[in-house]
Amino acid sequence: MKREDKSVMRVIAGESLTPPPIWMMRQAGRYLPEYKATRKEAGSFLDLCYNPPLATEVTLQPIRRFGFDAAILFSDILVIPDALGVDLRFEEGRGPILKPVDAAAIAKLDASKVVEYLAPVLETVDRLSNELPEQTTLLGFCGAPWTVATYMIAGHGTPDQGPARQFALTQPDDFQTLIDVLVDASSSYLIAQLKAGADAVQIFDSWASVLDEDQFTRWCVEPVKRVVANVRAQIPDAKIIGFPKGVGAFYKGYAAATGVDMIGIDWCLPMAFAQDLQKEVPIQGNLDPKRLIAGGTSLDTAVDNIIEHLNNGPLVFNLGHGITPETPIPHVQQMIDRVRMVC
Ligand code: 1CP
């Protein structure tokens, strides 16, 4: 099948499909026993990210089980700091731990070797492009410069990314240098993923919601706009999904300001607002992952609500954030059946 005929690619191009294509953020993950088994075989989480046969296997697992319309490359947004030489490990139950960067460390960062370092991830993309069912869209991804920077400054996840917000306000020039390195690294990494066979790429700005308007424009909109422009300078028809999670009213105008082709939305938006937004740009989202855990009518009514309000326009059905390990597998099937049934 030609790339532009795949369902997710058609929606990105502006078509409305019934039923809408479906995939789930973090669809390869700990809620699946087969993921846990492969993860154990690989050793650490990063070992799994850099093992092309096993990373390919875990990417394919949710496609085999559920027949999702898109597969997302198995990797992590923090492979970029790893490729920049920042010490990184993932601790069970704690998430990522990095050596925090200061002004001196930022000044030494060099984006030029990132693509070479990430060759195993690019090999995974290449393998996936050959092994996926022909109708399945292959998505590559990276973290947005702001979100990746928040982890590099704090050294770990935090509830409100206070350390990076403070750093950006008190040392804006140093922070700009960090963002510039991440713009270069992310651009070349996404270009390499698209060249290796990704059909489209998604930019995760998971921490875009903690900034005021001025800082949001400077650290979220501008850098993503530069990444999009750099990618399109090499690959003019590159399809790019933006996901500035939780930004509320700032969703308006985001696609036009950055140049992304589709935007992911979380569940904390009024449906009327989401419908208006969909007049600007195709939408991906936006089921609350907690409803997927709850199941029952709580899940069914939310699925129906999304379909009723958003499936008259271009929609890729997804969660508003990643699925979590405690989610019962039958609830995932319930969601998929419901989306395909109510349409
Ligand atoms: O083996 C494990 O169980 C480790 C858990 C795990 C997984 C499965 C982490 C650690 N990352 C991933 C994979 C991952 N991460 C994917 C793969 C593909 C898929 O979606 O199926 C993707 C797209 C990501 C992206 C990612 N990593 C984001 C952006 C999306 C989001 O969730 O907001 C972020 C913020 C990260 C950082 C990260 N990596 C892992 C954790 C636990 C975290 C969050 C840390 C925190 O803020 O505390």
From TrEMBL:
<comment type="similarity">
    <text>Belongs to the uroporphyrinogen decarboxylase family.</text>
</comment>
<feature type="binding site">
    <location>
        <position position="151"/>
    </location>
    <ligand>
        <name>substrate</name>
    </ligand>
</feature>
<feature type="domain" description="Uroporphyrinogen decarboxylase (URO-D)">
    <location>
        <begin position="139"/>
        <end position="155"/>
    </location>
</feature>
<dbReference type="InterPro" id="IPR006361">
    <property type="entry name" value="Uroporphyrinogen_deCO2ase_HemE"/>
</dbReference>
<keyword id="KW-0210">Decarboxylase</keyword>
<dbReference type="InterPro" id="IPR038071">
    <property type="entry name" value="UROD/MetE-like_sf"/>
</dbReference>
<protein>
    <recommendedName>
        <fullName>Uroporphyrinogen decarboxylase</fullName>
        <ecNumber>4.1.1.37</ecNumber>
    </recommendedName>
</protein>
<dbReference type="GO" id="GO:0004853">
    <property type="term" value="F:uroporphyrinogen decarboxylase activity"/>
</dbReference>
<comment type="subunit">
    <text>Homodimer.</text>
</comment>
<feature type="site" description="Transition state stabilizer">
    <location>
        <position position="76"/>
    </location>
</feature>
<feature type="binding site">
    <location>
        <position position="76"/>
    </location>
    <ligand>
        <name>substrate</name>
    </ligand>
</feature>
<dbReference type="InterPro" id="IPR000257">
    <property type="entry name" value="Uroporphyrinogen_deCOase"/>
</dbReference>
<feature type="domain" description="Uroporphyrinogen decarboxylase (URO-D)">
    <location>
        <begin position="21"/>
        <end position="30"/>
    </location>
</feature>
<keyword id="KW-0627">Porphyrin biosynthesis</keyword>
<comment type="function">
    <text>Catalyzes the decarboxylation of four acetate groups of uroporphyrinogen-III to yield coproporphyrinogen-III.</text>
</comment>
<keyword id="KW-0456">Lyase</keyword>
<dbReference type="Pfam" id="PF01208">
    <property type="entry name" value="URO-D"/>
</dbReference>
<feature type="binding site">
    <location>
        <position position="206"/>
    </location>
    <ligand>
        <name>substrate</name>
    </ligand>
</feature>
<comment type="pathway">
    <text>Porphyrin-containing compound metabolism; protoporphyrin-IX biosynthesis; coproporphyrinogen-III from 5-aminolevulinate: step 4/4.</text>
</comment>
<feature type="binding site">
    <location>
        <begin position="26"/>
        <end position="30"/>
    </location>
    <ligand>
        <name>substrate</name>
    </ligand>
</feature>
<keyword id="KW-0963">Cytoplasm</keyword>
<feature type="binding site">
    <location>
        <position position="321"/>
    </location>
    <ligand>
        <name>substrate</name>
    </ligand>
</feature>
